[in-house]
Amino acid sequence: MKKLLNPIEFYNDRKLLIVNLIIFVIGSTLAAYFRGWFDHTFHLSFRTDINFYKTFIESGVCVLLLGIFIFIAGKIINNKTRFIDALNLAFYIRIPFYLFALTNYDGRYSDLNSPIAEGNIMVALPSTSLDFIILIITSLLSLAILVFQFITIYKGFKTLSNAKKITDYLILAALLIVSMIVSSILLKNL
């Protein structure tokens, strides 16, 4: 479990980067196939119309911005922080999004966004037992992803920057929020 929550501590940085790049390509392909798109660093949405090329660009921009802001936070705390570790953490914490894209196997979430985009806030509630079960499982999966990401960011950042104080993590949190804002602005203009 320790290796799963903090791979930076246990694996060679270059090998981890290669594995992360392979997972990035496969995951971005899956996300695009299941109509997922990334509108900022910590968000996956679904659309009815997807451009594979744009999904890759969005995913790449998100990973790169996340890596840069994690690196900046690490450098503020410890001058010996390495960019490859920050980039590995950025790649790694996005893996759950690629898995979450699989939940849109039938286009269910893509179809929900169309009425909302048209200004209709009345979306049909789940009507069958299966719909409720899928909704509950998806909600629990979302919560598990969130918990996994928080733990992984905490442990990974502690390893790559030797963070010890609460202020170190406040710096990281502030810069992660900035990364969400910057990525949202950048991705709207793509």
TrEMBL record:
Keywords: Membrane, Transmembrane, Transmembrane helix
Ranges that cross the membrane: 16-36, 56-74, 132-154, 166-187
Organism lineage string: Bacteria, Pseudomonadati, Bacteroidota, Flavobacteriia, Flavobacteriales
Species this chain originates from: Paenimyroides baculatum
Keyword Membrane found: yes
Protein name: Yip1 domain-containing protein
